[in-house]
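Input sequence (196 aa), recorded before submission:
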Amino acid sequence: MVTSSLRILLVLLLTCAFASADTIREALVNLCDPAKIATITAERGANPRVRKICYWLEMARRDGRDPANEMREVMVAVGWGGTPKGDLTTDAMVRNRVIAERLGCLDESGMADLRGGKAPTILTGPYTGDKLSVDHILPRAVCPELDTTLANLELMPMRMNSSKSDSIGERQVDMAKKFYAAGLLSKAGLDAVLIR
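Predicted structure, token format:
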């Protein structure tokens, strides 16, 4: 009888063996395509995409490619290459892969969860045993228009996410200005951040 852990390991090994550069790029383009993201209607509906993007960026890294370069190529493919929208999205998704790595979430089990859009378990640091959730940099309560904007989504431990409020600090103000300048945030959204 094959154990669950062994089954996960076998699936990941087979995935690595068959995950060509084209497969990785195609998966990332599909997950990052603004036209597809625009059709998401569920609240927090882009959260599973962020986890899947993290998985595919790690697959690219394991294939010997730089995740930042991979994301830049993906942004070219979706029409955002060399734009502030593309740069902000690239930075956020690459940062998410690093966060997952630092929290020990890129082991076989974590990769299986990420590939399925699920929250892996954190294996390293003070949040060990917690789930890796997706949070909004600019709170959803303040800027609901950014609910599915990849550049606004960041991986973090569930307990840390739960303890956060909808407060606006320097980082949020700075990001709101960048999102507005890039065309990701409306003037009304920027004003909502600035008046808090």
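Checked by second reader. The two ends are 58 Å apart (CA to CA).
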